[in-house]
């Protein structure tokens, strides 16, 4: 094709540079040069025409081959996409199953730990209550015995003083003092008993509060984790999840 263009350019140059005929638009060109250029064109054009015709003849074949290659590429891409989608779906299902199993194990461990802590708290509560009741009974009994002893001493002292007419007034005064002292001592012992029981109950209340706080924190963490589908875990057996409903 370049050869054809070169021959045409050379022919144009020969015509442009040819000597013109006076009084006419004609010119005198060298015959040999023009003939040589025309021979070059005659030899070059058939080959180019044949190549162009071959391209035109194979146009449908080339287009069909390109379409087949495009269809094969599209089919391969679709198959690969389906395989990747199936693998991704299988991996997602596996991860969801593992997450569900882990959540169930964590929930079971938390429930077991909560039940253990509640049982321990109840046992400690019963032990502390029994010990406080025993100590209160012991202190109350001691207070009553001291009160009775003081009253008896006061009454004896009163009787002794009353037996002497010269010290009757002093006897009444001393007896009243002894009775007041006995009553004060009984009140003091009763207050000490009440204070001891209150202190023991306060210790148990603090222990139970810590246990309930631990249980509530564990259950709150389970609630924050949620169920595998993203929704909050359903409360078990009507429990509220706050930890306060664990003590019946």
From TrEMBL:
Residue ranges the record marks as coiled coil: 67-142
Keyword entries, A-Z: Coiled coil
Gene3D superfamilies: F1F0 ATP synthase subunit B, membrane domain
Ranges for region Disordered: 220-248
Entry keyword Coiled coil: yes
Top-level taxon of the source organism: Bacteria
PANTHER family to which the protein is assigned, alphabetical: SLR0848 PROTEIN
Record protein name field: DivIVA domain-containing protein
Organism: Pseudonocardia yuanmonensis
């Amino acid at each position: 094709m370049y050869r054809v263009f070169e021959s045409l350019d050379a022919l144009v140059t020969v015509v442009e540079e040819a000597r013109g005929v006076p009084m006419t638009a004609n010119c005198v060109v060298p015959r040999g040069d023009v003939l040589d250029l025309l021979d070059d064109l005659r030899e070059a054009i058939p080959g180019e025409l044949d190549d162009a015709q071959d391209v035109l003849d194979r146009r449908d074949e080339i287009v069909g081959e390109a379409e087949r290659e495009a269809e094969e590429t599209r089919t391969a891409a679709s198959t690969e996409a389906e395989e990747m989608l199936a693998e991704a779906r299988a991996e997602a299902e596996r991860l969801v199953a593992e997450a569900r199993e882990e959540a169930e194990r964590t929930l079971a461990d938390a429930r077991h730990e909560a039940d253990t802590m509640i049982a321990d708290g109840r046992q400690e509560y019963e032990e502390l209550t029994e010990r406080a009741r025993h100590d209160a009974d012991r202190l109350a009994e001691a207070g009553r015995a001291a009160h009775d002893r003081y009253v008896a001493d006061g009454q004896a002292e009163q009787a002794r003083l009353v037996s002497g007419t010269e010290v009757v007034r002093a006897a009444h005064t001393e007896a009243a003092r002894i009775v007041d002292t006995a009553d004060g001592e009984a009140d003091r012992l009763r207050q000490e008993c009440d204070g001891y029981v209150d202190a023991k109950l306060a210790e148990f209340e603090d222990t139970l509060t810590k246990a309930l706080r631990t249980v509530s924190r564990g259950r709150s963490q389970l609630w924050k984790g949620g169920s595998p589908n993203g929704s909050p875990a359903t409360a078990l057996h009507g429990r509220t999840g706050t930890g306060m409903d664990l003590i019946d």
